[in-house]
Amino acid sequence: MRQVIAGNWKMNGKFSDITPFAAAVLEADLGADLIICPPFPLLQGFAAALPGAHGAIGGQDCHANGSGAHTGDVSAALLAEAGAKYVILGHSERRADHGETNADVAAKVLAALSAGLIPIVCVGETESERDAGEAEHVVRTQLTHSLPSSFAGLVAYEPVWAIGTGRTPSEADVTAMHARIRAVLVAQFPASGASTPILYGGSFKPGNAASLLSLPEVGGALVGGASLNAADFLAIAASAPRG
Ligand code: PEP
């Protein structure tokens, strides 16, 4: 199975970035599947600039409702109409900045699925939770409550303390957590849990990508800061083992 390398641009980027970034992606010969998740206004431009075979587009959030009085929010159907195939849900910055609960995330996952989007659901413990020995419990709880019974999509394990900090868990810790996530997914979804891709996210760089992407049960990367630079993003993608 090809690995998935997803770039989360967060609240970064501008219209003039689309053409050079897409040109670099179009030139690359990669053994991994790319997903670019830019801010909402750039979705359509990216979708037009990147034919499907070269990279898919994703949103960074959606509302649980299809329409209505929700100022500043966007529906899953509109993301899909703008050209998105994926949507990141439950990112720790959404959970922290917007108070999103696991139940909120589950409702958004259902909305995304019914609009035909593939959700990438983020889970991960904070540093204090890890220090308290609660990482496994936190991640297990996030999985069981953020994924509805009809879940079909990807999971991203992103320890909050590794996001944007330059710090990464040890290879042993990533391996152990991905194995636990796999066990939870298999128990929760007997038909699909064994094949649900589990991405790792948190301070991916070209220099650490090959080792992180080679770990068992790591099905790809969710990349924040390094995804803004096409050369770095593509170097990470080029490090994915060719399946
Ligand atoms: C992220 O926020 O999803 C992320 C992984 O960020 P970074 O790569 O910058 O740590």
Describe this structure in words.
This protein is an alpha/beta fold. The protein has one domain (4-238): Alpha-Beta Barrel (TIM Barrel), CATH 3.20.20.70. The chain has 10 helices and 8 strands. The longest helix has 18 residues, at 171-188. The protein is globular and about 45 Å long. It starts with a strand and ends in a 5-residue tail after the last helix. The relative contact order is 0.17. The site of phosphoenolpyruvate has 13 residues, from strand 8. Phosphoenolpyruvate (PEP) binds at residues 8, 158, 163-164, 201-204, 222-226.
Task: Give me the secondary-structure topology.
Blueprint: E1 4-8, H1 18-27, E2 33-37, H2 43-49, E3 56-59, H3 76-82, E4 86-89, H4 92-97, H5 102-114, E5 118-123, H6 127-131, H7 135-146, E6 154-157, H8 171-188, E7 198-201, H9 206-213, E8 220-223, H10 230-238
Parallel strand pairs: 1-2, 1-8, 2-3, 3-4, 4-5, 5-6, 6-7, 7-8
Helix pairs in contact: 5-7, 7-8, 9-10
The structure holds phosphoenolpyruvate.
User: In angstroms, what separates the terminal alpha carbons?
Assistant: 5 Å
Mean of pLDDT? 97
Please state the oligomeric state of the protein chains shown.
single chain
Give the count of structural domains. Answer: 1
Order of helices and strands, N to C?
A: EHEHEHEHHEHHEHEHEH
Stretches with pLDDT under 50, minimum 5 residues: none
Which architecture name does CATH use?
Alpha-Beta Barrel
Which ligands, by name, code or SMILES, are bound? phosphoenolpyruvate
Count all strands and give the number.
8
Shape annotation: globular
* Residues in β-strands, percent: 5-15%
Q: Give the biggest sheet.
A: 8 strands, parallel, barrel
